[in-house]
Design goal:
The protein is an alpha+beta fold. The chain has a single domain, classed as Cyclic Phosphodiesterase, Chain: A (Alpha-Beta Complex). Helices cover about 30% and strands about 20% of the residues. The protein is built from 5 helices and 9 strands. The strands form 3 sheets. The chain has a 4-stranded antiparallel beta sheet with strand order 3-1-8-9, covered by helices on one side. A 3-stranded antiparallel beta sheet has the order 4-5-6. The protein is globular. The protein starts with 7 loop residues before the first helix and ends in a 5-residue tail after the last strand.
C-alpha cells in the first residue's frame, strides 16, 4: 500500500511525519497509559448500555486492542464510550475562548461546574438527531449527523449551548464529532500504517453495516476527574 493510498487523517499518526509528543501526553495520560487527574466538565451523548451499538463498538474496540501497536495506545473504558456534543471546561485549558467570558480563569473546576449547571437548568428542549459513523482513525471513530437535517440540528444544539454558557471554542463551527476508543501514547511507525489503514477501513464499513444509526442517550452535562468516567449531572430533553 503506497503513501498515496493512506488517508490524510491516518498520516497525522505517523511518527516520522509528527515526531512531537502526542496531544495531552503528560497531562491527560502518562507513558504507561494511565489516565491522570484532569478535572472538568462536558456535554456528551453516552452509548446506550446493552444496545446493539455498544456491542458493535466493543467489537471494533477489540480489533484495535488486537493490533501489534495497541501498547502505544491508552484505551478508555467501555463504560465511558460517548460522543461529545459540546466541550465544557477543563483544568489545563483556562484561557479565553475556552472559558465563559464573565468568569475568572482561576475559578475552581467544582465552582465552574456548579455555575454552568445552574445556567443549563432552564435549557430549552431541542430537536432530536441521529448520528452515523463516517470513518475510523487510530483513536476511534469519526461521526456526524446521519442526514443533512441531523447535522443542522447538532450544530443548533452547539450554538444554543454556547449562547447559554458564554463561550465558543475556535473550532466551534467545524468541530469534528467523534467517539474515542483511546489516546495515542506513541505515534505509529511507517511500516504499521498500511495495516492500520486496512483495519480502519474494515472497522468503519462493519459498523456502518451493523449499526447504520448509533444508539445514543440524550445529551447530558457531565463532570469528570479523568477520561475513565463521565458522571451525568443533567440530562437534556428532546422536543416531542
Amino acid at each position: 500500500m503506497s503513501v498515496a493510498s493512506l488517508s490524510p487523517d491516518l498520516l497525522k499518526y505517523s511518527k516520522s511525519r509528527h515526531p512531537e509528543p502526542p496531544p495531552h501526553f503528560g497531562t491527560r495520560f502518562n507513558a504507561s497509559g494511565d489516565f491522570q487527574y484532569e478535572p472538568g466538565n462536558t456535554i456528551v451523548c453516552h452509548v446506550v448500555e446493552g444496545s446493539r451499538t455498544q456491542e458493535v463498538l466493543i467489537d471494533a474496540r477489540a480489533r484495535f486492542l488486537a493490533m501489534p501497536e495497541a501498547k502505544q495506545l491508552a484505551f478508555t473504558p467501555i463504560s465511558s464510550l460517548h460522543m461529545t456534543l459540546f466541550q465544557g471546561i477543563i483544568e489545563y485549558r483556562r484561557k479565553p475562548l475556552f472559558w465563559p467570558t464573565d468568569l475568572a480563569h482561576d475559578t475552581s473546576i467544582d465552582e465552574m461546574t456548579d455555575v454552568m449547571l445552574e445556567r443549563l437548568g432552564a435549557f430549552p428542549a431541542q430537536e432530536p438527531f441521529n448520528v452515523a459513523v463516517t470513518h475510523a482513525r487510530p483513536t476511534g471513530l469519526i461521526v456526524e449527523g446521519a442526514t443533512e437535517a441531523d447535522r443542522r440540528t447538532m450544530r443548533s444544539w452547539r450554538d444554543a449551548f454556547a449562547d447559554v454558557l458564554g463561550y465558543r471554542h475556535p473550532d466551534h463551527e467545524d468541530y469534528v464529532f467523534h467517539v474515542t476508543f483511546d489516546y495515542v501514547i506513541e505515534r505509529l511507525e511507517d511500516d504499521a500504517l498500511p495495516r492500520w489503514q486496512q483495519l480502519l477501513d474494515e472497522v468503519a464499513a462493519d459498523i456502518r453495516d451493523r449499526a447504520q444509526v448509533l444508539e445514543l442517550n440524550p445529551p447530558a452535562f457531565c463532570s469528570f476527574d479523568d477520561m475513565n468516567h463521565f458522571e451525568e449531572l443533567l440530562v437534556f430533553d428532546f422536543k416531542p
